[in-house]
Amino acid sequence: MGYEPMNESWQMAGERHETLGQYVAKTYLWMFAGLLVTFGIALAGYVTGAILYVFQVPYATLALTGLELLTVIWLSARIHKLSVGAARGLFLFYAALNGVVFSMYFLIFGVVEMVFVFAATALFFGMMAGVSLIFKLDLSGIRPLLVGGLLFLILFGLLSMFLNLGSFETVLCYAGIVVFLGFTAYDTTKIRDNYQIFSADPELLQKASVFSALQLYLDFINLFLYIIRLMNRNRK
Fold first, then answer.
1. Confidence at residue 3, expressed as pLDDT on a 0 to 100 scale
2. Do 207 and 79 contact (CB within 8 A), yes or no?
3. What is the C-alpha R_g of the chain?
4. Which of 45, 76, 209, 229 has the fewest CB atoms nearer than 10 Å to its CB?
5. 223: pLDDT strictly greater than 90
6. How far apart are the C-alpha atoms of 106 and 141, rounded to whole Å?
7. How far is CA 62 from CA 57, 66, 223, in A?
8. How many C-beta atoms surround the C-beta of residue 172 within 10 A?
9. Mean pLDDT, to the nearest integer, of 78-106?
10. Could you give the CA distance from residue 68 to residue 70 in angstroms, rounded to a whole number?
C-alpha cells in the first residue's frame, strides 16, 4: 500500500524538475509521432490499395472530415478534464484519421513528390521553430495578424470552391505558407510560456504539452498542404 503513493510522488517530482529543453523536446517528439502515424497510415493505404475501398463508401470523405473536426474540438474543449493518457490517445487518433485522408494525396501526387514536399516542409518548419527557440522571440503581438490571415485563407478557400480565382490562387498559396510559418514560430513560443505558467502543476504541464503538439502538428500539415498545392499550380 505504501509503495504506490511513493512511486507516484517520485514521478511527480521528476516531472516538476523537467527542464525547459526536455519539455520542448518531448512536445516536438509527440508532434513528430503524430506525423509518423499520419504518413505511415497514408502510405500503407496507398501501397495496399485499401484507400480505394474506403473512398468507395458514400460520403466517406465528409464523414472523415467531420470526425476529425469533432476530435479536435473535443480535445481542445476538454483538455483540462481529460487525463494525460486520454489527451495523447485522442491526438494520435486524430493523426490516424488524417492519415486515411492523406492517402488520397499519395494517389494524386505519388510517393516521390509527397516525400519531397514533406522534406521541404520539415526544413521550413524547422527553421522557423529554431529561430523562435534560439532567439527566444516574444511573438504574442502577432497573434491578431495570424488569426486575421487565417480568416482570410478560410474565406478565399471557400470562394475557390465555387469560383475560378485564376492566378489569385497562387497568391493564396504563398499567403498560406507565410501564415502557417508565422503560426509555427508563435506556437513554439507558447511551449516556453506554458512551461513557465504550469510548472507548478505537472499534470496541467503535460496536458499543455499535448495541446502544443497538436497545434504544431496542424501548423505542419497546413504548411505541407499549401506547399504541395503551390507546386501543383506551378507545374500546371
1. 39
2. yes
3. 19
4. 76
5. yes
6. 38
7. 11, 6, 22
8. 21
9. 92
10. 5
Structure letter (DSSP) for residue 140: G
The mean predicted confidence, pLDDT, of the chain is 86
Nearest partner of 198 among 23, 73, 72, 76, judged by Cα? 23
Number of domains comprising the chain = 1
Phi-psi sector, 59: left (phi>0), alpha (psi -120 to 50), beta? left
Q: Which domain holds residue 159?
A: 3-235
Q: Say which amino acid occupies 223.
A: L
pLDDT, tens only, 57-68: 888 888 888 899
The alpha carbon dihedral of 218, 183, 224, 233 has a sign of positive
pLDDT at 16 over 60: no
Give the C-alpha separation, 41 to 34, whole Å.
11
Distance, in Å, from the CA atom of 175 to the CA atom of 188, rounded to the nearest integer, reads 20
